[in-house]
Amino acid sequence: MKKNLSLLLILMLGSISLFSQDYIYTRNNNRIAAKDVTIDITEVRYKEFNNPAGSEMAIKSNDISLIAFADGRLQFFEPVKKIVMRNEFNKNLFTYHLADLIVNNFTISYERINKSGKIGFEIPLSLGYGHYAQIDDIVNQFYTGLSVNFYPTGQGKWRFITGPGFRVGSAKWDYYSYDEYGYSNYKSNTGYFKLLVNNGVIFTPIKALSFSIIGSIGVRYVFKMPSDYDQRVRTTGGVSVNLSYRF
Fold first, then answer.
1. Which of 44, 183, 201, 243 has the most CB atoms in a 10 Å sphere around its CB?
2. 100: domain range?
3. Sign of dihedral through CA atoms 160, 247, 5, 7?
4. 203 lies in the same domain as 228
Protein backbone atom coordinates (compact mmCIF):
# COMPACT_ATOMS: atom_id res chain seq x y z
CA MET A 1 0.00 0.00 0.00
CA LYS A 2 2.78 2.45 0.95
CA LYS A 3 4.65 1.59 -2.25
CA ASN A 4 1.58 2.25 -4.40
CA LEU A 5 0.88 5.54 -2.63
CA SER A 6 4.48 6.69 -3.02
CA LEU A 7 4.41 5.86 -6.73
CA LEU A 8 1.16 7.77 -7.19
CA LEU A 9 2.48 10.87 -5.45
CA ILE A 10 5.81 10.77 -7.30
CA LEU A 11 3.99 10.69 -10.65
CA MET A 12 1.83 13.62 -9.62
CA LEU A 13 4.76 15.69 -8.37
CA GLY A 14 6.73 14.84 -11.49
CA SER A 15 3.98 16.19 -13.72
CA ILE A 16 3.77 19.33 -11.57
CA SER A 17 7.48 19.99 -11.91
CA LEU A 18 7.27 19.52 -15.67
CA PHE A 19 4.29 21.76 -16.40
CA SER A 20 4.27 24.16 -13.38
CA GLN A 21 0.50 24.28 -13.15
CA ASP A 22 -2.24 23.19 -10.76
CA TYR A 23 -4.04 19.92 -11.33
CA ILE A 24 -7.50 18.95 -10.09
CA TYR A 25 -8.00 15.18 -9.93
CA THR A 26 -11.66 14.14 -9.93
CA ARG A 27 -13.14 10.99 -8.42
CA ASN A 28 -14.02 9.62 -11.86
CA ASN A 29 -10.31 9.66 -12.78
CA ASN A 30 -10.23 12.86 -14.84
CA ARG A 31 -7.42 15.40 -14.54
CA ILE A 32 -8.03 19.12 -15.05
CA ALA A 33 -5.14 21.52 -15.73
CA ALA A 34 -6.07 24.70 -13.86
CA LYS A 35 -4.91 28.02 -12.49
CA ASP A 36 -6.29 30.58 -10.03
CA VAL A 37 -7.83 27.81 -7.93
CA THR A 38 -10.14 28.97 -5.13
CA ILE A 39 -11.46 26.49 -2.56
CA ASP A 40 -14.79 27.01 -0.79
CA ILE A 41 -16.73 24.69 1.51
CA THR A 42 -18.96 23.17 -1.19
CA GLU A 43 -17.12 23.86 -4.43
CA VAL A 44 -13.80 24.65 -6.07
CA ARG A 45 -13.53 27.46 -8.61
CA TYR A 46 -10.77 27.70 -11.20
CA LYS A 47 -9.81 28.84 -14.67
CA GLU A 48 -8.63 26.49 -17.36
CA PHE A 49 -4.85 26.58 -17.71
CA ASN A 50 -5.03 26.75 -21.51
CA ASN A 51 -7.67 29.48 -21.42
CA PRO A 52 -6.75 31.91 -18.62
CA ALA A 53 -8.86 34.69 -20.14
CA GLY A 54 -11.96 32.50 -20.17
CA SER A 55 -14.79 32.36 -17.67
CA GLU A 56 -14.35 30.90 -14.19
CA MET A 57 -15.33 27.24 -13.84
CA ALA A 58 -16.66 25.42 -10.76
CA ILE A 59 -16.77 21.83 -9.55
CA LYS A 60 -18.35 20.38 -6.41
CA SER A 61 -15.91 19.51 -3.64
CA ASN A 62 -17.34 15.99 -3.21
CA ASP A 63 -16.51 15.28 -6.89
CA ILE A 64 -12.83 15.99 -6.29
CA SER A 65 -10.21 13.48 -5.21
CA LEU A 66 -7.31 15.86 -4.67
CA ILE A 67 -5.68 19.06 -5.91
CA ALA A 68 -1.96 19.13 -6.72
CA PHE A 69 -0.70 22.72 -6.70
CA ALA A 70 2.20 24.01 -8.77
CA ASP A 71 4.21 24.79 -5.63
CA GLY A 72 4.15 21.11 -4.60
CA ARG A 73 1.27 21.20 -2.11
CA LEU A 74 -1.33 18.43 -2.18
CA GLN A 75 -4.85 18.94 -0.80
CA PHE A 76 -6.92 15.78 -0.36
CA PHE A 77 -10.71 15.74 -0.53
CA GLU A 78 -11.08 12.04 0.32
CA PRO A 79 -9.05 9.41 2.22
CA VAL A 80 -5.75 8.48 0.62
CA LYS A 81 -6.64 4.75 0.75
CA LYS A 82 -9.60 5.36 -1.59
CA ILE A 83 -7.40 7.22 -4.05
CA VAL A 84 -4.85 4.42 -4.15
CA MET A 85 -7.51 1.72 -4.51
CA ARG A 86 -9.15 3.52 -7.43
CA ASN A 87 -5.84 3.96 -9.27
CA GLU A 88 -3.94 0.82 -8.25
CA PHE A 89 -6.35 -2.07 -8.83
CA ASN A 90 -6.05 -5.66 -10.03
CA LYS A 91 -7.24 -5.75 -13.64
CA ASN A 92 -8.04 -9.47 -13.97
CA LEU A 93 -11.07 -11.14 -12.36
CA PHE A 94 -11.75 -14.87 -12.14
CA THR A 95 -15.37 -15.25 -11.01
CA TYR A 96 -17.41 -18.13 -9.62
CA HIS A 97 -21.17 -17.61 -10.11
CA LEU A 98 -22.57 -19.05 -6.89
CA ALA A 99 -26.30 -18.59 -7.55
CA ASP A 100 -26.16 -20.63 -10.78
CA LEU A 101 -25.93 -23.77 -8.66
CA ILE A 102 -29.61 -23.25 -7.78
CA VAL A 103 -30.57 -23.90 -11.42
CA ASN A 104 -28.05 -26.75 -11.88
CA ASN A 105 -25.38 -24.76 -13.70
CA PHE A 106 -21.67 -24.60 -12.93
CA THR A 107 -20.58 -21.17 -14.19
CA ILE A 108 -17.26 -19.34 -14.13
CA SER A 109 -16.04 -16.28 -16.02
CA TYR A 110 -12.92 -14.26 -16.76
CA GLU A 111 -12.91 -10.45 -17.00
CA ARG A 112 -10.19 -8.04 -18.04
CA ILE A 113 -10.60 -4.41 -16.94
CA ASN A 114 -8.90 -1.68 -18.97
CA LYS A 115 -6.33 0.75 -17.60
CA SER A 116 -8.87 3.49 -16.82
CA GLY A 117 -10.93 1.10 -14.68
CA LYS A 118 -14.14 2.06 -16.48
CA ILE A 119 -14.58 -0.78 -19.02
CA GLY A 120 -14.28 -4.54 -18.61
CA PHE A 121 -14.64 -7.43 -21.07
CA GLU A 122 -16.04 -10.62 -19.52
CA ILE A 123 -16.25 -14.13 -21.03
CA PRO A 124 -18.49 -16.64 -19.18
CA LEU A 125 -18.37 -20.43 -19.40
CA SER A 126 -21.29 -22.48 -18.07
CA LEU A 127 -21.94 -26.23 -17.92
CA GLY A 128 -25.43 -27.48 -17.10
CA TYR A 129 -25.96 -30.73 -15.23
CA GLY A 130 -29.73 -30.71 -14.67
CA HIS A 131 -32.31 -32.94 -16.31
CA TYR A 132 -35.48 -30.92 -15.78
CA ALA A 133 -36.31 -27.27 -16.36
CA GLN A 134 -36.78 -25.32 -13.14
CA ILE A 135 -37.17 -21.63 -13.95
CA ASP A 136 -36.81 -21.55 -17.74
CA ASP A 137 -38.53 -23.87 -20.25
CA ILE A 138 -35.20 -25.20 -21.53
CA VAL A 139 -32.39 -26.94 -19.67
CA ASN A 140 -28.96 -25.40 -20.26
CA GLN A 141 -26.18 -27.75 -21.33
CA PHE A 142 -23.49 -25.25 -22.22
CA TYR A 143 -23.09 -21.55 -22.95
CA THR A 144 -20.43 -18.91 -23.46
CA GLY A 145 -20.51 -15.34 -24.75
CA LEU A 146 -19.24 -11.85 -24.03
CA SER A 147 -20.30 -9.01 -21.72
CA VAL A 148 -19.03 -5.44 -21.92
CA ASN A 149 -19.10 -4.02 -18.41
CA PHE A 150 -19.07 -0.28 -17.77
CA TYR A 151 -17.99 1.16 -14.40
CA PRO A 152 -19.18 4.81 -14.43
CA THR A 153 -17.28 5.72 -11.26
CA GLY A 154 -14.21 3.60 -11.98
CA GLN A 155 -12.79 1.13 -9.48
CA GLY A 156 -13.12 1.33 -5.71
CA LYS A 157 -14.52 -0.42 -2.67
CA TRP A 158 -18.13 -0.03 -3.87
CA ARG A 159 -19.02 0.46 -7.51
CA PHE A 160 -21.92 0.20 -9.92
CA ILE A 161 -21.73 -1.96 -13.05
CA THR A 162 -23.86 -1.84 -16.19
CA GLY A 163 -23.60 -2.95 -19.81
CA PRO A 164 -24.75 -5.28 -22.60
CA GLY A 165 -23.98 -8.95 -23.02
CA PHE A 166 -24.81 -11.90 -25.20
CA ARG A 167 -24.79 -15.65 -24.66
CA VAL A 168 -24.85 -18.52 -27.13
CA GLY A 169 -25.24 -22.14 -26.13
CA SER A 170 -26.93 -25.51 -26.37
CA ALA A 171 -29.85 -26.78 -24.33
CA LYS A 172 -32.55 -29.44 -24.04
CA TRP A 173 -36.26 -28.83 -24.31
CA ASP A 174 -38.29 -29.97 -21.32
CA TYR A 175 -41.83 -29.30 -22.47
CA TYR A 176 -45.14 -30.83 -21.40
CA SER A 177 -48.29 -30.64 -23.52
CA TYR A 178 -51.84 -31.89 -22.97
CA ASP A 179 -54.29 -33.37 -25.48
CA GLU A 180 -57.14 -35.85 -25.49
CA TYR A 181 -54.67 -38.62 -24.75
CA GLY A 182 -53.33 -36.92 -21.62
CA TYR A 183 -49.98 -35.33 -20.83
CA SER A 184 -46.93 -35.86 -23.00
CA ASN A 185 -43.35 -34.80 -22.43
CA TYR A 186 -41.35 -33.34 -25.34
CA LYS A 187 -37.55 -33.47 -25.11
CA SER A 188 -35.07 -32.48 -27.78
CA ASN A 189 -31.67 -30.83 -28.16
CA THR A 190 -31.59 -27.25 -29.39
CA GLY A 191 -29.44 -24.13 -29.49
CA TYR A 192 -30.14 -20.60 -28.31
CA PHE A 193 -28.72 -17.14 -27.84
CA LYS A 194 -29.59 -14.29 -25.48
CA LEU A 195 -29.13 -10.53 -25.66
CA LEU A 196 -29.01 -9.04 -22.16
CA VAL A 197 -28.63 -5.79 -20.26
CA ASN A 198 -26.76 -6.27 -16.98
CA ASN A 199 -26.88 -4.03 -13.90
CA GLY A 200 -25.39 -4.64 -10.49
CA VAL A 201 -23.27 -3.66 -7.51
CA ILE A 202 -19.76 -4.86 -6.64
CA PHE A 203 -18.11 -4.76 -3.22
CA THR A 204 -14.33 -5.16 -2.86
CA PRO A 205 -13.38 -5.41 0.84
CA ILE A 206 -9.75 -6.27 0.02
CA LYS A 207 -7.67 -5.89 -3.13
CA ALA A 208 -7.82 -9.56 -4.18
CA LEU A 209 -11.50 -10.30 -3.46
CA SER A 210 -14.86 -9.01 -4.73
CA PHE A 211 -18.51 -9.88 -4.15
CA SER A 212 -21.20 -8.89 -6.65
CA ILE A 213 -24.92 -9.11 -7.33
CA ILE A 214 -25.87 -8.73 -11.01
CA GLY A 215 -29.39 -8.58 -12.42
CA SER A 216 -30.01 -9.26 -16.12
CA ILE A 217 -32.97 -8.75 -18.44
CA GLY A 218 -33.23 -9.23 -22.19
CA VAL A 219 -34.43 -11.39 -25.09
CA ARG A 220 -33.90 -15.07 -25.85
CA TYR A 221 -34.06 -16.79 -29.25
CA VAL A 222 -34.28 -20.59 -29.59
CA PHE A 223 -33.31 -22.25 -32.89
CA LYS A 224 -35.50 -25.36 -32.63
CA MET A 225 -38.76 -25.75 -30.74
CA PRO A 226 -41.90 -27.96 -30.61
CA SER A 227 -44.38 -27.20 -33.38
CA ASP A 228 -47.20 -26.45 -30.91
CA TYR A 229 -45.11 -24.14 -28.70
CA ASP A 230 -44.87 -20.61 -30.05
CA GLN A 231 -42.10 -19.24 -27.83
CA ARG A 232 -39.12 -19.07 -30.19
CA VAL A 233 -38.54 -15.46 -29.08
CA ARG A 234 -39.33 -14.42 -25.52
CA THR A 235 -38.10 -12.22 -22.70
CA THR A 236 -35.60 -13.62 -20.25
CA GLY A 237 -33.74 -12.55 -17.14
CA GLY A 238 -31.89 -13.67 -14.07
CA VAL A 239 -29.92 -12.76 -10.96
CA SER A 240 -26.33 -13.77 -10.32
CA VAL A 241 -24.51 -13.76 -6.96
CA ASN A 242 -20.77 -13.94 -7.54
CA LEU A 243 -17.42 -14.33 -5.81
CA SER A 244 -14.37 -12.99 -7.69
CA TYR A 245 -10.63 -13.44 -7.23
CA ARG A 246 -8.74 -10.37 -8.50
CA PHE A 247 -5.17 -10.64 -9.75
1. 44
2. 92-246
3. negative
4. yes
Exposure string (b/e) for 57-86, b if CB count within 10 Å is 16 or more? eebeeeebbbbbebeeeeeebeeeeebbbb
Which residues touch 67 (CB under 8 Å, ≥6 apart)? 22, 23, 24, 25, 37, 39, 44, 74, 75, 77
Residue 56 DSSP class: P
| 41, 68, 87 - which closes a domain | 87
Closest CA to 244 of 82, 124, 74: 124
Q: Are residues 72 and 116 in the same domain?
A: no
Q: CATH number for the domain including 12?
A: 2.30.30
Q: Walk along the chain (247 residues) and give the pLDDT tens digit of each residue.
A: 444 554 455 455 555 455 578 999 888 778 899 989 999 989 999 999 999 888 999 999 999 989 989 888 889 998 887 777 677 788 999 999 999 999 899 999 999 999 888 999 999 999 999 877 666 778 899 999 999 999 988 888 888 999 999 999 999 886 666 666 666 666 778 999 999 999 999 999 988 999 999 999 999 999 987 776 677 899 999 999 999 999 9
Looking at the structure, do residues 136 and 236 belong to the same domain, yes or no?
yes
